[in-house]
Specification:
The complex is a heterodimer of chains A (448) and B (427). With 448 residues, chain A is an alpha/beta fold. Chain A is built from twelve helices and 14 strands. Chain A folds into two domains: 244 residues, Peroxisomal Thiolase, Chain A, domain 1; 152 residues, Peroxisomal Thiolase, Chain A, domain 1 (3-Layer(aba) Sandwich). Chain B is an alpha/beta fold and 427 residues long. Classes of the chains: A alpha/beta (448), B alpha/beta (427).
């Protein structure tokens, strides 16, 4: 029998807040974080809005001895390091990263801690790179390969490449928390974090680790990565003057999504070892929910070169069905869906089609709560943030606020509504994304 | 738990684009390394690399129109996977359940559109303030950059192209753990099959970093050999005069199946995957833990999961990059795991001939292990002339060797401290 696994720590970071309490407050209040972009001048792009993370200093989230290393962290790495720190503290973990984990005081031996962290294609910081490129131009201002090869290369810092390798998110997190167990970096667009959570689940189920950091983080708020999002055609370009109502998931008037920054790291833990440490701990850690099912699949849509899901939602339905199968429950037992729901019409419609296949006529009675209306789509971090919110929803038996959807797609219970108490025994959370990978988990109310 | 077997192999490498001719060249000790021609590297500290030559993905795929404009890394992936697909006989098998066909790759990002990227950056640069003006940048980029070229850089695009080519609807992943990526991908694919979440998986990796910023990045890390006068002698794993690795490119792909599925369709079974280990150094972003702690953990996990004793291993395919640090620490780690037997077990590095295929290296190397099992022959480590006193094992120097190979172990270690080990066994 595979070991049982619970969520014992939440580390969301995004426009809604840094940490689970502020994030949850915003999510239940229905406060949109979408606004005009401040980190660069967006005026020459068709979309001017997004959801930025409020100011923070990564130095406040690492041990003193590690502050020097923050110089080689791209923004994506910073977000993951902060999220991991928040999650570890929320789980009441003693690691070298939480500053009270020396020697015998550590919660787990290092080889029993894993890390699976989804990452995107990290963009080079353009000021730094261009300053170096500019030194290698000729008298006409053209780039000169010969000059670059000879002397230009030396204008970059020696560790330059290491800021941008996607596995550096997991690398820094494993060093800070001395996690020497199985570790991976999954790079599957917006499905990355959810696939990473699934891989951690498997690693703990089969006994290769007792606890894992998992999820993902990304910032696409760099002109280069932002332009790539523009080029996919998924961004909202008609609501630059009304950012708070721009993102309308599953609404008949949905007109695209916006880029969000952030993601989330959650702590997955073996139920047995969690109980053993909870019995001894001074501060009792929280069991937010049990993870009872996971499934992954691929959508194939040759007409759209796999840049959109198949319109019938077959791929999405496959992932959800295999998750239900492992959970051993039927669709009638799902009380809340936290969907991908980005307000990109092709995606929303494919998701709706997939959900109809799985849930049939009962779909109209299952609340669907997308937080993209408030946070934007956080790239590789998307599923991490979604799972944080869903776990808190299950733990508090509360559905977060749904905003901006006044005309839901037919048969979907996705209309705007204030946050409300509800019986949530099982929540389904799923992601899909550019390239067509799909992943889903089912969270069950924790009952010991 | 299902047993998992390898039923198909394929690769696109600097030494060629088909299994048999490349294997022949490896056994003959040939090098694929030469001057870099992909861009003008004539003033770079390193002016050579291990490039794939004369390759056209259109010769391999069923419907080239589906992949028009495909990135170079994904083009490699398509050729390698198509070979593996045919070698597994899947092109002649019409009962495959495509919802139970998965893909797990450890593929890299696509190459930057360097010239247009530089033009946009310089166009947006304000020399006075030494800051980039995003609005000026966008004006240039909007005109010069193409959507397809940009989207092809996403690291899951090789996976996406394979899913379209083979109509694969099962579990699908891409991991990017630097130089360990495709070994890890094969290990995780094995886990998915073992659990029964798929019948068959395409697993492997594809990568190229032979572009100006890739070479720049590794040059700044002082990781590359600079033997510009003798490129074919530049990759010298375990040699005392080694001075860094040689950047390569390509793809290696395998078809993995549950043993039951393979037997039911009478598939050719090339080897069984019996062991997998994965660990993190959790040490430093730049350096390998000096005792090889992570590598030791990964090998031990793999041996334990394979239920294989160290002395049962007949061949080790080394990570063996040819950097000072890697080769000596790798040797130390193998000694820690294998004890007295370490000096008896043959361990070679085909990177001496292929260069370092980065994310694709592990898959390419596991394929050499499959072929070593088949032909009972171990490929050599070439350019090993002056042994390093810290590297005192049997590295199969310069000549391939006929010997019993029933169990092979393959190691991959990535920047950032990711370690992965696979063990395969003759059926």
């Amino acid at each position: 029998m595979p070991r049982r696994v619970i969520i014992s720590g939440l580390g969301p970071i995004g426009g809604l807040g840094i940490g689970i309490e502020p994030t949850w407050q915003s999510a239940t209040a229905g406060r949109s974080a979408v606004g005009r972009l401040k980190c660069f001048d967006p005026s020459e792009f068709p979309c001017h809005i997004g959801a930025e993370v409020e100011d923070f200093s990564v130095r406040d989230f690492v041990p003193k001895s590690y502050r020097k290393a923050t110089k080689v962290m791209a923004r994506d790495i910073e977000l993951a390091v902060v999220a991991a720190d928040l999650a570890a503290r929320d789980a009441k973990l003693a690691t070298p990263g939480t500053a009270n984990g020396d020697g015998d005081a550590r919660t787990y031996p290092s080889p029993r801690i894993g890390a699976h962290i989804g990452a995107g294609l990290i963009a080079a910081e353009l000021n730094e790179l261009t300053a170096a490129l500019f030194e290698s131009t000729d008298e006409h201002g053209q780039f000169d390969y010969h000059k670059w090869g000879q002397e230009g290369i030396g204008n970059l810092t020696p560790l330059w490449l290491l800021k941008y390798l996607p596995n550096m998110l997991a690398c820094h997190v494993t060093i800070i928390h001395d996690a020497q167990g199985p570790s991976n970096t999954i790079t599957c667009g917006e499905a990355s974090a959810m696939l990473s959570i699934g891989e951690s689940l498997r690693v703990i189920q089969r006994g290769n680790a007792d606890l894992c950091f998992c999820g993902g983080a990304e910032s696409k708020l760099n002109p280069m990565t932002f332009l790539r999002q523009v080029m996919t055609g998924r961004l909202n370009t008609t609501s630059n003057d009304s950012p708070a109502t721009a993102v309308r998931p599953f609404c008949k008037t949905a007109a695209g999504t916006v880029v969000g920054e952030g993601g989330g790291i959650v702590i997955l833990e073996s139920l047995d070892t969690f109980k053993a440490r909870a019995a001894k701990a001074d501060q009792t850690p929280t069991a937010y929910a049990e993870v009872i099912g996971f499934g992954a699949s691929q959508s194939v849509n040759r007409d759209a070169r796999n840049l959109e899901p198949d319109p019938q939602g077959r791929g999405i339905a496959l992932a959800i069905r295999s998750t239900l199968r492992e959970a051993g429950i039927g669709p009638d037992q799902i009380d809340l869906i936290v969907p991908f729901g980005t307000a990109t019409p092709h995606y929303d419609q494919a998701e709706a089609a997939g959900l109809r296949q799985v849930f049939g006529g009962r779909l109209a009675s299952v609340p669907i709560a997308s937080i993209k209306s408030m946070t934007g789509t956080c790239g590789a971090g998307t599923g991490g943030l979604d799972v944080c919110v869903a776990a808190k929803a299950v733990a508090t038996q509360t559905i977060p606020a749904v905003i901006n959807c006044d005309q839901p797609l037919d048969g979907l219970n996705a209309a705007a509504a204030p946050s409300r108490q509800a019986t949530i025994n099982h929540a389904l959370v799923y992601s899909t994304g550019l390239g067509g990978q799909n992943a889903a988990v089912i969270l069950k109310k924790y009952e010991g | 738990m299902n047993r998992v077997v390898i039923t198909g192999i394929g690769w696109v490498t600097p030494l060629g684009h088909d299994i048999e001719s490349v294997w022949g060249r490896l056994l003959a000790g040939e090098s694929g390394i030469g001057p870099t021609t992909r861009f003008d590297a004539s003033t770079f500290p390193t002016q050579f690399s291990s490039q794939v030559k004369g390759y056209d993905y259109k010769k391999f795929v069923s419907n080239p129109a589906l992949h028009e404009g495909v990135g170079l890394n994904s083009a490699f992936a398509l050729g390698a996977a198509s070979q593996a697909w045919r070698s597994a006989g899947l092109d002649r098998f019409d009962k495959l359940d495509h919802e139970r066909l998965g893909i797990y790759l450890g593929s890299g990002e696509g190459s930057l559109d360097f010239d247009n990227y530089v033009a946009a950056n310089l166009g947006g640069w304000d020399a006075e303030t030494r800051c980039l003006d995003a609005a000026k940048w966008a004006k240039v980029a909007n005109v010069r950059m193409s959507a397809m070229r940009e989207i092809e850089q996403e690291p899951n695009m090789s996976l996406t192209h394979l899913a379209m080519e083979f109509d694969a609807w099962g579990p699908a992943y891409n991991c990017l753990t630097a130089c360990a990526a495709s070994t890890q991908a094969i290990g995780e694919a094995t886990q998915i099959l073992s659990r029964g979440d798929a019948d068959a998986m395409i697993a492997g990796g594809a990568h190229t970093m032979i572009h100006p910023l890739g070479v720049t990045g590794f040059t700044r890390l002082t990781a590359l050999s600079t033997r510009n006068d003798t490129p074919t002698a530049a990759s010298r794993p375990f040699d005392q005069t080694r001075d860094g690795f040689v950047l390569g490119e390509g793809a290696g792909m395998l078809i993995l199946e549950t043993l039951d599925h393979a037997q039911a369709r009478n598939a050719p079974v090339l080897a069984e995957i019996v062991g997998y280990g994965s660990s993190a150094d959790a040490y430093r972003i730049t350096d390998i833990q000096p005792e090889g702690r992570g590598a030791i953990a990964s090998m031990r996990q793999a041996l334990e999961s394979a239920d294989v004793e160290p002395q049962d291993v007949d061949y080790i395919s080394a990570h063996g990059t040819g950097t000072k640090e890697n080769d000596s620490i790798e040797t130390r780690a193998v000694k820690a795991v294998f004890g007295d037997y370490a000096k008896k077990v043959p361990m070679s590095s085909v990177k001496s001939m292929m260069g370092h295929l980065i994310a694709a290296a592990g898959a390419m190397e596991l394929i050499t292990c499959v072929l070593a099992l088949r032909d009972q022959t171990i490929p050599p480590t070439i350019n090993l002339q002056s042994p390093d006193p810290h590297c005192d094992m049997d590295y199969v120097a310069n000549q391939s060797r006929k010997t019993k190979v029933d169990v092979a172990l393959s190691n991959s270690f990535g920047f950032g401290g990711q370690n992965d080990t696979l063990i395969i066994k003759k059926m």
